[in-house]
Amino acid sequence: MHFSATSDYPADATTVAAMLADEDFARRRAEATGPLEQSTEVTRDGEAFTVTTKLKMPTTMVPPKFRSFAPSALNVTLVEAWAAPGADGARTSTFDVDIQGVPAKVRGTQKLAPSAAGSTKTYDGEVTASIPLVGKKMEQMAVAAVDKIVQVERRIALEYLAEH
Predict the structure, then answer these.
(1) pTM
(2) What Pfam families does its record include (predicted)?
């Protein structure tokens, strides 16, 4: 199932990219999702960077009728690989979400681009769940969860940008 979302930021793309590559921001964003445990690592390759976030999430985030498909806690790994900026400061990334023990995948791309008011971050991706009979419903719920995560990220980003 396809999803897309957009977030606008009142800062230029270079500033927002620096925020996305900041371990403090990545940690705050992860903590806002309510994990039981979390770790974040940012690695750099010149101007490109990769953010790897590992979360141990409670199964309360899974609707009760689907909890039998999930382990006692969900181990989630999010990897965002951001390319170096273009001449205008725009960047692209791929992202991959792996939920260990759950036959569902989330993959896509992100683009951070300058805009008249600062910058815009766009998400474009696919959710797939390979569970007979209920896979489509799980995909719909995962897309709804992605929308909530994007809203949380925007809130944390606006707080972070106001502080810096």
Answers:
(1) 0.87
(2) DUF2505
